[in-house]
């Protein structure tokens, strides 16, 4: 749900709870918490205990009707028709050229009903695109933007399940604790609050849950979860920790690893592209051509020498004396878990297999070991 603060930025339903205590930043037109107690402390809490994130800036777009399956199949790279109600998939919405308009989660709510969760900056784009495709191709389906009425909380970390289990209504506890990754339950009670959808998903590389609920109910659930989880080390966490956590987990961020000029194949995410669906997705011919001709660029992981971090946009070179760059950094930050600067970079395919590349950090070519993604993988996925 979006309100507005005095600066004209949109706000979530939880904004009044932390506007005086959190460090705030502008993100996708929203006033969002970048941190509460500090990025490092929040990052470590999620890796060792749990963190609670306000992600109510994300979108919720409902697609329903007799041909909802057909519309969703046209829009996304995942196979939606084979999803059972109660399951979700990660997917891309593409331009005809194969570039990414957004990456999102697709939830199947019922036989003829789906929910797409796009990134905050792309909500209007995805709603407009879905309606354009529907109208152009004569598909019978409704496209409704639920975002203004819905809030989303993310409870993430190795103790997330234990915390959620303690506050879930007894009649819903078994269903919630039994969820496997990318499964969800609808219309459950958590800490006495009605939750529309509770999914075992997240963006941190840890076990966790995302809880979707009516906007007006969000403050009560936020406060109840923090109170219940405090003995376990649960802390509120902001966008800063969310970014370092997802970077360690090798998860892309729209606008950095993924853009309308980057395809899923270049980003190394072909696993989330289903070629040959009964209803082909928009952009499939372009991706087939790129696959046949060879992907020109590839996303690689880098671990830099020294302490200076790489930042988005820094040039990456194949050798210390090279004149022409091989590509550029898409995301970079010090890794709290590894204790080293890490980065993802999009580089020419000819150089993606090099053992070492060189990042221009403020005029100095810093050696960076090329490593497979992700940088961090949790040792066990509870419930999965």
Automatic annotation (TrEMBL):
GO terms for biological process: glycine decarboxylation via glycine cleavage system; methylation. It is an enzyme of class 2 (transferase). Residues 297-376 form the Aminomethyltransferase C-terminal domain. Residues 20-277 form the GCVT N-terminal domain. The keyword Methyltransferase applies. It comes from the Bacteria. The keyword Transferase applies. InterPro entries: GcvT, GcvT/YgfZ/DmdA, GcvT/YgfZ_C, GcvT_bac, GcvT_C, GCVT_N, TrmE/GcvT-like. Keywords: Aminotransferase, Methyltransferase, Transferase. Its EC number is 2.1.2.10. SUPFAM superfamilies: Aminomethyltransferase beta-barrel domain, Folate-binding domain. GO terms for cellular component: cytosol; glycine cleavage complex. Pfam families: GCV_T, GCV_T_C. Substrate binds at residue 210. It catalyses: N(6)-[(R)-S(8)-aminomethyldihydrolipoyl]-L-lysyl-[protein] + (6S)-5,6,7,8-tetrahydrofolate = N(6)-[(R)-dihydrolipoyl]-L-lysyl-[protein] + (6R)-5,10-methylene-5,6,7,8-tetrahydrofolate + NH4(+). GO terms for molecular function: aminomethyltransferase activity; methyltransferase activity; transaminase activity. Belongs to the GcvT family. The glycine cleavage system is composed of four proteins: P, T, L and H. The glycine cleavage system catalyzes the degradation of glycine. HAMAP family: GcvT (MF_00259). PANTHER family: AMINOMETHYLTRANSFERASE, AMINOMETHYLTRANSFERASE, MITOCHONDRIAL. This is Aminomethyltransferase. The gene is gcvT.
């Amino acid at each position: 749900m979006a309100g507005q603060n005095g600066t004209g930025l949109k706000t979530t339903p939880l904004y009044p709870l932390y506007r005086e205590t959190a460090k705030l930043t502008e993100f996708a037109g929203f006033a969002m918490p970048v941190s509460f107690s500090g990025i490092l402390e929040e990052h470590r809490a999620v890796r060792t205990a749990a963190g609670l994130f306000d992600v109510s800036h994300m979108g919720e777009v409902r697609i329903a009707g007799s041909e909802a399956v057909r519309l969703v199949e046209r829009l996304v790279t995942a196979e939606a028709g084979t999803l059972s109600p109660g399951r979700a998939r990660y997917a891309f919405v593409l331009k005809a050229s194969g570039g990414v308009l957004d990456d999102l989660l697709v939830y199947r709510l019922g036989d003829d009903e789906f929910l797409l969760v796009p990134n905050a900056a792309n909500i209007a784009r995805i709603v407009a695109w879905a309606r354009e495709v529907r109208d152009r191709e004569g598909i019978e389906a409704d496209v409704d933007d639920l975002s203004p009425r819905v809030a989303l909380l993310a409870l993430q970390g190795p103790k997330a399940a234990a915390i959620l289990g303690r506050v879930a209504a007894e009649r819903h506890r078994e269903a919630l604790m039994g969820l496997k990754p990318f499964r969800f339950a609808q219309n459950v009670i958590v800490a006495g609050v009605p939750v529309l959808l509770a999914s075992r998903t997240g963006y941190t590389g840890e076990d966790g849950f995302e809880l979707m609920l009516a906007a007006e109910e969000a403050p009560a659930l936020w406060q109840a979860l923090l109170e219940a989880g405090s003995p376990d080390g649960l802390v509120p966490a902001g966008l800063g920790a969310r970014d370092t956590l997802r970077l360690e987990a090798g998860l892309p961020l729209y606008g950095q690893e993924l853009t309308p000029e980057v395809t899923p194949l270049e980003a190394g995410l072909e696993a989330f592209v289903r070629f040959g669906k009964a209803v082909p997705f928009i952009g499939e011919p372009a991706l087939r051509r790129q696959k046949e001709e060879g992907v020109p660029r590839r996303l690689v992981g880098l671990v830099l020498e020294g302490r200076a971090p790489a930042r988005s946009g820094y040039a990456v070179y194949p050798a210390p004396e090279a004149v022409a760059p091989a590509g550029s950094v898409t995301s970079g930050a010090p890794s709290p878990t590894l204790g080293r600067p890490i980065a993802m970079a999009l580089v020419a395919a000819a150089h993606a297999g090099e053992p070492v590349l060189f990042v221009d950090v403020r005029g100095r070519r810093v050696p960076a070991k090329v490593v497979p993604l992700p940088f961090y993988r949790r040792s066990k996925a509870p419930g999965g």
